[in-house]
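Why run this: before we spend reagent on co-expression, it is cheaper to look at a predicted model of the complex and decide which construct boundaries make sense. The entries below are exactly what would go into the expression plan.
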Amino acid sequence: MARRNLSESASKALAALLELGPSSRPALSQATGLSKQTISLAISELEDHRLVEVVTSQQGHTGRSASVYDLASDAGWLLGVDLGSTHLRLAATTLRGRLLVETEVSVPALSQSANTDLSQFAGDPIDAFITKTEAEHGRVQAAGVALSRAVPALTDWQAAGIDDHGDLASIAARLGIPGDVPLYLENNVNCAALGELRHGRATRHSDFAYLQIGVGIGAGIVTRGSLLRGEKGEAGELRRLPSPFTDGPEFADAEDALSVSGILARYAARAGTDSGISVKEVFRNVETDPVAAEVVRAEARGIAYLAVVLAAVADPGAIVLGGGVGQNAILLPVIEQEVRRRGLDIDITVGSLGDSATLAGATALAAELTLGALLGEAHAPRALLGYGGPWPT
Amino acid sequence: MARRNLSESASKALAALLELGPSSRPALSQATGLSKQTISLAISELEDHRLVEVVTSQQGHTGRSASVYDLASDAGWLLGVDLGSTHLRLAATTLRGRLLVETEVSVPALSQSANTDLSQFAGDPIDAFITKTEAEHGRVQAAGVALSRAVPALTDWQAAGIDDHGDLASIAARLGIPGDVPLYLENNVNCAALGELRHGRATRHSDFAYLQIGVGIGAGIVTRGSLLRGEKGEAGELRRLPSPFTDGPEFADAEDALSVSGILARYAARAGTDSGISVKEVFRNVETDPVAAEVVRAEARGIAYLAVVLAAVADPGAIVLGGGVGQNAILLPVIEQEVRRRGLDIDITVGSLGDSATLAGATALAAELTLGALLGEAHAPRALLGYGGPWPT
DNA sequence: TTAGTTCGTTCGGTTACCGTACCAACATTA
DNA sequence: TAATGTTGGTACGGTAACCGAACGAACTAA
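The model came back. Tokens follow.
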């Protein structure tokens, strides 16, 4: 929805409100440097737009008690969509980023082929989720959608088409999202990075990398608090790096070597037979099965190679691991040892959001861009420090 | 020098002037959206600050002829310093980025050890250069200094110390730069990237990587028109990547393998004897010496590996090669072939500025930050599109 | 010389902000 | 319960920055 423009002072006040949390007018006056009357004007403007409301009045202190304002409870909510090849996850958060609802929808139709293009859409389940959530929490303000493909950086999402499959409006329609809801698309790994940045392990960092190892491999890189996208939106697409393994089975690239299929191939090559083991079992059997232990050690060394590459190119302050493979904390000691052996000292951890990282990031994306559009470029960055917070897991 | 603050409209007018080049008041009015009177006010404010002046009047058209304004010729100039381990290069440019003077000073004292810290300074030669250039072109406004070490990103250069060797003021003093001249330090490879961005081969790109192969290796990465620095200013420090070679002599890392010393080591290993050949000769003898040809082919494959790493992580729109080794265009066909073999399609070229890239970038750095400080953060980015232009080679 | 066009300034009005002053509502104290 | 001090919120006038309209200034074309 095209939000009518806010005045300069209203933007400042709203930015301060987002950063400080529920605040009285004097507090906002002090934070923004604007005078009391100007803040009053700004507040009434924001109230006219139904963006803020009085939530309480601050009593107990000496002197007259102040009205405390916060984002209106009916200011609407944000939709996050994690559209994977085998799953569809949906979440609703407030504008502040507090989780309202999180669900996983089983969509067998999605699982037929890799969701590398936009030809597969969700439709009904999303539509139903929106309808149901709007009944409880008001209007949906924006949607962030995580796709398992690179998404080109577009300066104007509304105007530009995404790819051959049509423009954003038709994508929205096929997703089951009303056409007047701003829609933001982003790569799923980049979303996961945003999720860990806003709600997870990386909240203290402005420069870090999220390294996802699972069915595929990829990284989301955050520099100065925002995503590194690159010329074609393909930054962090690590799959075509050379395989880090020099012995054992031949692999075309790093994704072949380190993803789920690579682990199974290496296990099969060692075990001699096609044992039908799953990756989960490989990790579970590390203590008892020497082949599994060897495969996992090699995996850790391979991940360390990716960490070294990320560190050399982007100098992240931390590397957060995710994905079905990367989430296994058992990998960490070997990874750290390998990285240290190369003279690098990087803080490497496992993400705290698990499989919800992507979903949390999709909502965070919607929040960033919604608030950014609302506040104007000038006031957005600092304001965004104020939202976020723990994502219940 | 602490430039007194400009009003909002004066900043806008100056930004437009920088972007458009010499302009009349009506042109600035149209470009900024400000009214004619406001532009007149802004112009007189800028004239009071001695920043702009009338350069000509636009005659020949119908109607009254307009005064055309441009940056004042006595608005001062910018100093660029390329402080290498074996050389000291100095340049002066206008605020627009037009080269006024470029010199190389022979400083044997610098060559004693690698300039990995700031303990070696230039002093007298820089002092003399400033004095001489100020006599001709007025006051020096700012200095950009390229160092062969990683430089941490500091939000406030004036306030923060750089490292154990002292604060910025004392560094300035030891460099021979007056203490009231704003001083900006940056890594030399990052500077070279800025140089190719503003004055060289990458002027059309907002996302690209400059890959320097010489005595050391490193990359400068530009995303959305500005340098990628990372948490500790070490983005692009590729030296600790694993060596891309699996046969031949053992190398500790990619820098060992691909820099000048690596080439010579590989040549020696192949030729069997320590032939005392130089890298220049290796490249010159490619046609006649099969060992040289083999070594150069391997070097190209190694550089292709770095290009693939850069492409995977940062998705640059182009890769520009530089440095004593990287400048050899003879490497390009093999590099491109290797990169294509990996399914990547990247535009790879040799930089157009040669050894002056770093120096050009040091001046560009000074220009960016000076104009950025002058215009305020809001108007700076677009304004900076306007400066630059060819660097005479 | 005159007409037409464009440049640049002068004038008055609007907008967004501030400081001051004043009223309103609370806690404390007597 | 009433007086008092403290803080919240509003009303009023002033200021700075900008705009549109009008007008004089300087040029070309005929």
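Residues 16 and 31 of chain B are 7 Å apart (CA to CA). The longest strand of chain B covers residues 140-147. Bring this page to Monday's planning discussion.
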